[in-house]
Amino acid sequence: MTFGALGGLVRQNIRRGRRAFVLAVFGIAVGISSLAFFLALSAGVRKVADEIFPTGQLEVVAATSSLEAGPLSLFSLGGPKALTDEAADKLQARPEVAAAHRRMRLSFPARAQGGHEILGRDIRAELIAEGLDPAAVAGEATAPEPFSDDPGSQKACVADTDCAGGEYCPVDTHACERPVPAVLSPFMLEMYNGAIAPSHGLPRVGGFLASRFRGFTFTAELGASFFGIGASRTGAPPRERRIMLVGIAKRAAKLALTLPLGIVRRWNALYGGAASSRELSSVLLELQPHADVARLSAYLRELGYTTADSGAERVGLALTLLTLLFALVSFAIVALAGINLAHGFYRAVAERRREIGVLRSVGASSRDIQRLFLSEAGAIGLCGGLIGLGAARLAALALDLAAGRYLPEFPFKPDTYFSFDWRIIGGALLCSVLACMAGALFPARAAARLDPTEALSAP
C-alpha cells in the first residue's frame, strides 16, 4: 500500500468516525496541555531562580568556626583560617575550577551621598562595598569607563579643570584621578525596583545599561560614618573619592557596591592596616562542566574553608520535585487517554471486520492493516498534541496577564513565568503521538491477524 493510498484511507476513516476522533483527540489534548503547561512553568521559574542563584558557581569563605573547617582544624588554637591569595591560587589550580575570582570587603566605615541629578534629591547612606577581580567582569558591557583599578594619569593638579579625560582633582593628593568604576548586581537592582523604590517614592530603574544611570557619579567619604563609628585603625584622615556606576555584572556582590579589587586593597591598607589588605572575604569559583563538587568540597575542608550557602541547592531540589510531581500527574492523564484509545480501537476493529476483509482480499498485507490503524492513532496524537500545546500556551498567557495585573511588584518579578522552548514543544508532541500509537498497537496487531475469509463472512 502506497503512502498516498494509506493517507486517503486515514482521512476517510476519520471523516466517517468524526465523533470518536474528536473524543479521542480531546482526551489526549487534556493530558498534553497539562504536561506542557507544568513543564513550561517549571522551566520559566527555573530561569528566574538561576538569576537569583546562579548555577555553576561556588563561593568559598573562611569557616566561622573550627568545626566547619574539617577535623584537622579542631587542634588549631588560632581560630578559623583566613582566606588569602595563596589559597585562591590553590583553588584556581584545581581541575574542577575554571576560574577563581577574589573578593574583599571594605574593612573600615565609609559613607556616600549623591543622586540629585537623577532621583531629584540626594541620598545619603553608609557605603557597603566589596572589591572584585576585574577579570570577573570581563565580557560585561561597562561604560563610559572600564572596570579596572587603574587610578588615572596622576598628573599634578590644583582644580578639576587641570585634569582631562573625565578625571578630577582630589583635594588631598592634588593628582588627577579617574572616578572609581563600580558595578551593581542584577539582584541589587531588582531589590531597588521591587522594594526600595515603591516604598520611598523613587523612580524605578529600567534597563541599567540603557538608562541615565550609566555614568552616574556620586561622592564617597572614606574613613567617615553617619553612625559616628571610629573609622581608621591607622590614624589616616577621612578623604573623598568619586565613584561612577558603569554597568551591571552577574558576578557582582548581591547586596553591596562592587569596586575593583586593587582599589579596595589600597583603601584597606590605608585605613585598616596591611593585614586587612591581605585577607579575602570570599573566592568565587566558576566550575568546569560536570565538575565533581563533592570532591572539591572535601578539598576545601582539608584547607580549612567552607562554602557559602546560597540556597541554590534547596531551590533546585524543590523545583525538581514539583516538576516531577506535576509531570507524573500529566503522564497519568496521558496514559489514561491512551488506555481509552486502546478500548476505542478494539471496538473499531470489531466494527470494521468486513472492511478489513475487503482490504485484505484486494491485496493489502497484514503489515498494511497494522500501519493503517497506527497511522490513525498517530493522527489523533498529532492533533491532540497541537491542541494541547495551544491550550497550554493560552493558559500561560492568561496566568501571566493575571499576575502582571494583580500581583504587586517584587524583586525579580518576570514578564512571563513560562518558557516554551523547542524541547518542551517537541517533547509534548512526541509524547502525544507515541502514547496514541502505543494505545493502538495491540488493537492494530489484532486487526492484522484477522483471517480475510472470516472477516468477509462476518455479519
Report on this model:
The protein has 459 residues and is α+β, with helices and mostly antiparallel strands. The chain folds into two domains: 3-53 and 315-457, no CATH class; 57-309, no CATH class. Helix content is 48%, strand content 14%. It has twelve helices and eleven strands. The chain has helices at 3-16, 18-52, 85-92, 116-119, 186-200, 261-272, 293-303, 312-351, 353-361, 366-406, 422-448, 452-457; strands spanning 57-62, 97-105, 110-114, 123-126, 129-132, 180-184, 217-222, 239-248, 257-260, 282-287, 305-307. A six-stranded mixed sheet has the order 9-5-2-10-1-11. The chain has a five-stranded mixed sheet with strand order 4-3-7-8-6. The longest helix has 41 residues, at 366-406. The radius of gyration is 33 Å and the shape is elongated.
Largest sheet: 6 strands, mixed
Shape assignment: elongated
Give the strand line-up of the largest sheet.
Answer: 9-5-2-10-1-11
Arithmetic mean pLDDT: 81
Count of DSSP helices?
12
Helix-strand topology string: HHEHEEHEEEHEEEHEHEHHHHH
Low-confidence sequence ranges: 72-77
The overall number of domains is 2
Find the count of extended strands (DSSP E, 2+ residues).
11
Structural class: alpha+beta
The radius of gyration is 33 Å
